[in-house]
Specification:
Structural class: alpha+beta
Distance between the termini: 41 Å
Bound molecules: zinc ion
Radius of gyration: 20 Å
Number of domains: 2
Helix content: 40-55%
Order of helices and strands: HEEEEEHHH
Strand order of the largest sheet: 1-2-3
Number of strands: 5
Largest sheet: 3 strands, antiparallel
Length: 132
């Protein structure tokens, strides 16, 4: 790793630390050098380049880390994170399965867990039908 790479890494950590401190949901795509976060204006997901920190949204809102630091953030700004959602759904269903008193309910819940995960996997491989 050269000196330049180290500097980029350091900067990425500064950006991520900023999002964490402000309690803004983000997804870090290390390979793509992108950090996704919800637009302050329209709440849609937008991508920031983790090298230049520049971002722009379809709604016209754009800026960089400096302008973000100067902005005030709405309290509860959430980003839909499919991986996190999947984990949470599985956790909920497993809890239900364990707590189910009747065997019949448990079997149905266990079947539903398998079906939901197969469905998610299907969409992960084939994409949403809306994109076709
Ligand atoms: Zn926007």
């Amino acid at each position: 790793m050269g000196k330049g790479n180290l500097m980029v890494k350091g900067q990425e950590y500064v950006v991520l630390a900023f999002f964490k401190e402000k309690k803004i949901d983000y997804i870090y795509y290390e390979q793509d050098k992108l950090i996704a976060f919800p637009c302050l204006n329209c709440q849609q997901k937008l991508n920031m380049c983790s090298i230049t920190t520049f971002f722009s949204c379809a709604c016209g809102y754009e800026g960089n880390l400096i302008s973000l630091i100067k902005s005030s953030f709405p309290k509860d700004i959430r980003l839909y994170n499919p991986k996190k959602e999947k984990k949470e759904i599985n956790k909920m269903l497993n809890k239900l399965s364990i707590k189910s008193l009747s065997d019949c309910n448990k079997k149905t819940i266990d079947k539903a867990i398998i079906k939901i995960n197969n469905l998610i996997e299907y969409y992960e491989k084939n994409g949403s039908p809306n994109n076709k």
